[in-house]
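Notebook entry, structure prediction.
Reason for the run: the old model in the group folder had no record of what sequence produced it. Starting over properly, with the input documented here first.
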Amino acid sequence: MVSVCIASYNGCKYMKEQLISILSQLSCDDEIIVSDDGSCDGTLEIVSNMEDSRIKEVLNIEKHGVVPNFENAIKYASGDYIFLCDQDDLWVENKVKTCVEALQSVDLVVHNSLLMDGVGNVSDIDFFSLRKSTAGYWKNLYKNSFIGCCMAFRREILDYVLPFPEHILWHDMWIGLMVEKKGKTMFIEDKLLYYRRHDNNASATAEKSSFSFLFQIKYRLQMFGYTLIR
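New structure, fully documented this time:
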């Protein structure tokens, strides 16, 4: 069984198109968990109007923000294979099949993606080239190349990934580092997603960090400490 976990917040502009690209790849036993963080733009109405029993709406009512919202979605997931999903991208046709096949031999898979603009124009710029993405704990502690919308993992990793530590900024970096420490990861070159870049994105690609160099050093030491004691 596959669970797709979406953290939504005011995502009505692209949500329907994204859901359509996902549903076409799922079986009748799979599910999409949409955890909403208080949208006020009609996002949940769009989700409800899809009228598909595989879509389950849950509310994020405890802690707000992208990281707690994804954690909330994951907690409701029932699947053997869990996919993280943004509300505004598009899945390529064979994403689920390719990732599930890879997960037969590893605990977590990260696939490549192509960048797309706000109106749907797909570029030839891929995420792996921008981030120099490879596996490895130390490499990704230094420069993270785990990106949630391109990740899928086996349910078993939740035993040591959840709960997320307090105050982390990036859930995907945390999940990736923990699997590098305790499990097995795989980076595959297949471009299985169109990664939409627009003004309201909650995540970055290769933009220069807005955090100071000192903050970045401190944060990496903090992440190292979290993964060391977990």
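Summary: The chain is about 35% helix and 25% strand.
The old model has been moved to the deprecated folder.
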